[in-house]
Amino acid sequence: MIALVQRVRQARVEVAGAVVGAIGPGLLVLVCAEPADTAAQAAKLVDKLLRLRIFSDAAGKMNRSLQDVGGGLLLVSQFTLAADTSAGNRPSFTGAAPAAQGRELYEETLRLARARHPLVQAGVFGADMQVHLVNDGPVTIPLTVR
User: Fold this and answer.
1) What is the pLDDT of residues 51-61, one digit of tens each?
2) Among 6, 55, 79, 109, the one annotated catalytic
3) Which of 9, 10, 27, 73 is surrounded by the fewest CB atoms within 10 Å?
């Protein structure tokens, strides 16, 4: 799975003008499943997200995790993370999982995250979403889980 992790002061996702998910301080994570991914990759991703030490400790060093700080987690599906731009000017998205598989893995990621963390919000799979965020730092980290 591919993820783009952004440490935020706040973030929200809107669909058709309505807020469908919102958090205060925490992580906004854009998530993309690839064809070879399984529930095992979803579990590894959730584990990494909850333990990734990208929040500052008392000394200002990135040494605390989402679980340590009790922050929110906002998961948003985004197949465009699998874009291949190596040929021409129009991206190819053949590296993304088919929609049914992508939905299944996104929902599994949400299920696992909600089982392990008290504040998990989400976008709507396949919807036209508007994502609003205040990036903190800015801290943006790409992750690939195999």
Assistant:
1) 999 999 999 99
2) 79
3) 9
Q: CATH number of the domain at 2-138, please? A: 3.50.80.10
For residue 74, which of 138, 137, 117 has the smallest C-alpha distance? Answer: 117
Residue ranges in 18-140 assigned as alpha helix (H): 39-51, 66-69, 99-116
Residue 74 forms beta bridges with which residues? 28, 121
What are the residue boundaries of the structural domains of the chain, listed by start?
A: 2-138
Q: What H or E segment, with its residue span, contains residue 126?
A: none
6 assigned to active site: no
C-alpha span between 61 and 119 (Å, rounded): 24
Is 80 designated active site? yes
Question: Given 6, 41, 55, 78, which residue is catalytic?
Answer: 78
**pLDDT tens, position by position, 12-40:** 999 999 999 999 999 999 999 999 999 99
Residues 6+ apart with CB under 8 A from 5: 27, 28, 29, 49, 52, 54, 140, 141, 142, 143
Active site residue 130: no
Confidence (pTM): 0.96
